[in-house]
Amino acid sequence: MTESIVRQGRMFHNVSDSIYWLPHDDEELDRLVGQHFALKALFEGNVAKEILPTLEKGAKILDVGCGPGTWIMDLATEFPECELYGVDFCDVFPSDIRPPNVQFLHANVLERLPFDDNSFDFVNMRFFMLALRQDEWVTALKEVYRVLKPGGFFQSLEAGMMDRGNDFCLWVGGIFMNVMRERGQEPYIAFKVNELMEKANIQHIKIDKRDTYLSKPDQLNREFLWDIVNIVRSAQPFLTGPLGISPEKFPQFLQRFEHECKQPPGAQWLIAVNVGQKQC
Ligand SMILES: C[S@@+](CC[C@H](N)C(=O)[O-])C[C@H]1O[C@@H](n2cnc3c(N)ncnc32)[C@H](O)[C@@H]1O
Questions:
Q1: Can you give the residue ranges of every domain in the chain?
Q2: C-alpha of residue 131 to centroid of ligand 1, in Å
């Protein structure tokens, strides 16, 4: 069982050395499940189109930092002939019921993953922006390179910052970025993953950037508004001090944040998928 620590009523991992700052309780796992289906709709699928032919042939796939395993189990159902593995340093993935072609393992990508060199046709890593310090990215990507087969694909999905919206949203976004920088993290890592891949010898193939419009009333944009409000809710223990808001007043602040995202000019949140390939 992953060791936990409670902060302001939420349950966080207690992995020494890790900078990851979101909780791993049921509320956060629900957010990740909701976020998965919103991302799938935004990017019109779970996998970039360049990778699909590899999966159709039957492939060995790894999801690093799989969380509750929603992406990998969804993919396993789409591609029953593939062999899939999910790893996470918190044991939040299902232990009993899962598709028969999926296995979950406890592992830390900053240490050696429990797989041989050249094992996987496809490695996925999603939402590590709050999990790695800037200088840990190359270590993690070198481990991805090691376990990828020559010709194997890498897909990374990360988000931008709250840097478009009214003054209130820009204030919240600015504080969030300051906290990331104080923790040694790069807020705009989504747009630097290409350089990091090259440092790890993974050839960058493309970036696919898609915007979400948090003031729009359609279902998908409403889901991203719900997601970003809940990310801020999950990060509460790290934000109350910098925002100058007490834990008791935080629910009121979140209501205001949600309201302000919908006000002119309308907050926007950019999300990016980077695709790379290990050279043969
Ligand atoms: C924001 S969640 C994303 C989960 C999942 N990839 C998704 O998109 O739904 C980040 C996940 O990475 C895991 N994680 C953080 N640092 C890790 C590390 N060094 N090695 C393995 N997993 C890690 C966390 O426990 C968490 O489940």
A1: 25-278
A2: 7
16 pLDDT above the threshold of 90 = no
The pLDDT tens digits of the residues spanning 35-58 come to 999 999 999 999 999 999 999 999
Chain-centre distance of CA 12, in angstroms? 16
**Ligand 1 site, CB within 6 A:** 18, 20, 22, 24, 32, 36, 65-67, 70-71, 88-90, 92, 108-110, 126-127, 131
Whole-number pLDDT of residue 170 = 98
Asked if the model's pLDDT at residue 205 lies above 90, the reply is yes
Rounded to whole angstroms, how far apart are CA atoms 272 and 157? 6
- Is the predicted pLDDT of residue 13 greater than 90, yes or no? no
Give the residue among 250, 87, 227 at the shortest CA–CA distance from 162: 227
- pLDDT for 68-106, tens place per residue? 999 999 999 999 999 999 999 998 899 888 899 999 999
Query: Which residue has a Cα nearest atom 23 of ligand 1?
Result: 65
Q: What class does CATH assign to 25-278?
A: alpha beta
Q: Which atom of ligand 1 is nearest to the CA of 108?
A: 20
* Kind plus residue range of the DSSP H or E element containing 61: strand 60-64
Q: Whose CA is nearest to atom 16 of ligand 1?
A: 131
Distance 167 CA to ligand 1 centre (A): 31
Strand order in the sheet with 202-213: 102-106, 83-88, 60-64, 120-126, 148-159, 268-278, 202-213
Which residues are within 8 A (CB) of 44 and not within 5 positions of it... i.e. 6 or more apart? none
Compute CA distances 14 → 3, 22, 24, 235, whole Å: 5, 11, 10, 15
